[in-house]
Design a protein that fits this description.
two-stranded antiparallel sheet, about 15% helix, elongated
Length: about 200
């Protein structure tokens, strides 16, 4: 590895005639780029692609993600949105955001451009996982979509237990009309068979 000097470097620069090899974990330290799409090409610091957009950050420009100052020009560690040319960020910051938001929601944090921004970041070696954003936890979604379906009365009288519910009669399960987070069988709360609405003690 031309970065750390250890053996086992499996990635070689794609440029013809360049024999620089490196470990994937050493890429950032060595200023290397690996493109995580298409042919999965890798480049050393000398042959890596550069952003073509003509832009320079204004004085005291900060990273839109961490709010720390960025450099005074484009570089390996300081990047800009190719669409709006106003969004500046550190490579490490946009990489963390890409891992967090996933492929479907990745866009410029300033102008919200998707296609140009995404293609530029992929070309510049930002890894973008093909998955839902981290905040869209599938288990949480399932829990939110399930309807409450048990009797929460202090003493459930239903012979079939708290989970049993019938379409009509004393064992019909009513959900709280305010929160729908608690339920009761009609009989367990001394309600008549014609009662159609009930509110829990909490509400």
């Amino acid at each position: 590895c031309f970065v750390c000097g250890e053996s086992g470097a499996a990635i070689t620069c794609r440029e013809t005639g360049c024999d620089r090899s490196f470990h994937l974990p050493c890429a950032v330290e060595g200023g290397c780029i690996t493109q995580f799409f298409g042919l999965y090409r890798s480049f050393c610091w000398e042959h890596r692609p550069e952003q073509a957009v003509e832009a320079a950050p204004a004085e005291n420009t900060t990273c839109l993600i961490c709010l720390d100052p960025v450099g005074d020009r484009k570089s390996y560690s300081t990047m800009v949105c190719p669409a709006c040319k106003h969004a500046w960020f550190h490579r490490g910051c946009i990489q963390k955001q890409a891992i967090h938001v996933g492929f479907s929601c990745f866009c410029c944090p300033h102008c919200q451009n998707e296609y140009r921004f995404l293609m530029e970041m992929l070309t510049m070696g930002i890894r973008l996982p093909r998955r839902l954003p981290s905040w869209e936890n599938s288990h949480a979604d399932v829990a939110l979509s399930e309807r409450h379906s048990r009797c929460d009365a202090s003493e459930c009288l239903c012979p079939g237990g708290r989970e049993q519910a019938e379409e009509e009669g004393p064992w019909h399960l009513l959900l709280c009309c305010s929160c729908a987070a608690e339920g009761t069988h009609r009989r367990c709360s001394c309600l008549t068979n014609s009662t159609a609405s009930w509110e829990c003690d909490s509400c």
